[in-house]
Write a structure and sequence with these properties.
- This protein is an all-alpha fold.
- The chain has one domain.
- The protein contains 13 helices and no strands.
- Helix 5 packs antiparallel against helix 11 and helix 6 runs antiparallel to helix 13.
- The relative contact order is 0.23.
Amino acid sequence: MLWVFTTLVAAVGQTARNAMQSSLTASLGTLGATQVRFLYGFPFALVFLALVTAVARVSVPGPTAAFIVYTSAGALAQIFATALMLAAMRKRAFSVAITFTKTEAVQVALFGFVFLGDALTSERVAAIAVATAGVIVVAAKPGTDWNTRSAKPLLLGVASGGLFALAAVGFRGGILALGDGPYFLRATTTLVWSLGIQAFLLGAWLLAFDRAALARSLAVWRQSLFAGFMGAFASQFWFLGFSLTAAANVRTLALVEVLLAQAVSRRVFGQRVSAREAAGMALVVAGVALLLLAA
């Protein structure tokens, strides 16, 4: 059950990173704030890998073709997922946007059923229904005219959750493709490769098409450095979880982040959550709990 501990630590770290990235979005733009997670996180991942190899006295495993494919796919999906999440945060309260993205847990289960043939038991179907109802309750504000503009945060959040789900599957595939070495070494190696790919791709894009955003992120390096560290720290524990159990289990338990995001939303951003939104979040958490019990 070590994966439970690593997942809870990762959820706390990710909440702090999301809050920092959200605050940087106004000055850096969506892509500028997105690349902070990867560009500033990559050096910390290298430090983590150096510590792991030194303490455990092991060598870094060489990449296989399957590892590169899985990790690259996960890295790309996570870039787009992060950008969509930050865009959703600009449209709705921090905690509500996080709730939309947390449909990821449901989508992981569905992807497993569609692509891997994982069985969907009656308990899992019930859990998915409860969690989905929670998202609808959060999104469906009474009296809202559901035109394209008002539905955009929901669509952005759900799409972000789907891409995060694909990223989780890709990263676990990469970890498994490294063979039978120590789980912590495979997890940290995959983290370094994924952040390296992400920092290179998004950095090259900004250098070519949005140098102003890249320059602004370098100008606020202190805030960016903290966000990068928290991103690498959280990812380190996510990847440890992926190395220990199925991605669906990790991302399901990660729904505790909804409650953490609500606390941050109130204390840091001064955003109030209505009783209806709180009830919807409770349903999402209940659905995830059921999904975890059915796993």
